[in-house]
Amino acid sequence: MKTLVTGGAGFIGATTVQALLDAGHEVLVFDNLSKGYADAIPSQVTLVRGDVGHREQIESVLRDYRPEAVLHFAASIEAGESMKVPEKYFRNNSAATLTLLEAMLAAEGIKATGKGYNARVEAVLREALAKGLLNPQPAPQSDLLDAGKPKR
Ligand SMILES: NC(=O)c1ccc[n+]([C@@H]2O[C@H](COP(=O)([O-])OP(=O)(O)OC[C@H]3O[C@@H](n4cnc5c(N)ncnc54)[C@H](O)[C@@H]3O)[C@@H](O)[C@H]2O)c1
User: How far is the CA of 150 from the centre of ligand 1 (A)?
Assistant: First the structure.
């Protein structure tokens, strides 16, 4: 599967990139290198340096690369700093995630993968906003993964 990994030069992202490669998937990393390291990315993986919060940059990559899945690990994660400068965390974790999700909805390449995918992005968007905006820390990945699942 063609996958785009945001924050793929960071700790969790780089580990995930290796796991994806080991499982036979194709990977492109999108990272602004504010914290991560280009050296952490395996040599066969393309790194596009850009910011998830920059709508034109992320939408352009989505349109050009046309991933079938996006794994989003680009975030600011320092708990102490998030209490001192919460606006930086709301901007990078909440607002930038919203920008990514809007770009995914807008990009023709993603829409081409099917109606179900778009419905899932919209569900994630609704729940991420509902759960994430009260806390400057990134929402747990489990919350975001659960957000698109049908309720029992
Ligand atoms: N580290 C952990 O133990 C842990 C555990 C569970 C979940 N997580 C979550 O995984 C995610 C990544 O955490 P991490 O530990 O790998 O952090 P990290 O700081 O090592 O990696 C984050 C990466 O995102 C990049 N980045 C940050 N903002 C960006 C932006 N706006 N545009 C593009 N790239 C950007 C950084 O350059 C860096 O490479 C976070 O959401 C975190 O909450 C981390």
Answer: 27
Question: Does residue 148 carry a pLDDT above 90?
Answer: no
pLDDT for residue 114 is more than 50: no
Question: What was the pLDDT predicted at 111?
Answer: 45
Residue 115 identity (one-letter amino acid): K
Q: And the tokens for 55?
A: 């709508």
Summarize pLDDT for 51-101 with one digit per residue, the tens: 999 999 999 999 999 999 999 999 999 999 999 999 999 999 999 999 999
Contact call for residues 23 and 3 (beta carbons, < 8 A):
no
Closest-CA residue to 73 (of 113, 123, 34): 34
Whole-number mean pLDDT of the chain?
A: 85
In this predicted structure, what is the pLDDT of residue 112? 41
The pTM assigned to this predicted structure is: 0.83
Which residue lies with its CA nearest to atom 34 of ligand 1?
31
Assess whether the C-beta atom of 77 lies below 6 angstroms from ligand 1: yes
